[in-house]
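Hello,

Our lab assistant flagged a job as stuck in the queue for most of the afternoon. It eventually completed. Since we weren't sure the result was trustworthy after the delay, we are filing this so someone can double-check. Below is the sequence as submitted and the structure that was eventually returned. Let us know if re-running is recommended.
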Amino acid sequence: MSDLSLERTIELADMVAYAGATWDWHRLHYDSAWLAERGIDRPVVDGQLFGALLAEMVLDWAGPGASLTALSFRFKGFVYAGETVRCTGRVVSVEDGVTSLECSVEVVGDDARVAVAPAAAEVRRP
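-- returned structure --
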C-alpha cells in the first residue's frame, strides 16, 4: 500500500470560509488589528482545519464508499494564513477490514516545521 500526501496553501479567504462553515469566529483566525495588539503578525489557522485536511487526504486515498472510523491528532505549533502545509500518512496495519494510518501535518517552505503530530486515522474500505 502506498503512502498518502496532500498539500494545501491556506489563505485567509479559506480560513474565513471554514469559520463560516463551523461557526468558529474567534478573532485569532481573521482580525489583524486584534492580533497586532497581541504581538501576532498574521491570522492563525483554526486547528480543527487540520482534522478536515487529514480526513480529506485519508478518504481520497481510501476511495468511494470508505468511511473514516477514527481520527486523532495533537497540535505542535501555530500555522499562519498564507502558509503551505503538507499532510502525510502511511499505513501501519490492516486488520479485520480496518486500515490504520500514522499521519502528520508539516508547514513547508522557508519556515518548515511540524504543525500536527502525532496523528492517527482508521478507515474502513469496502
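-- support follow-up --
The delay was a queue issue, not a problem with the job. The result is valid. The chain has one domain: 4-124. The chain has a mean pLDDT of 95.
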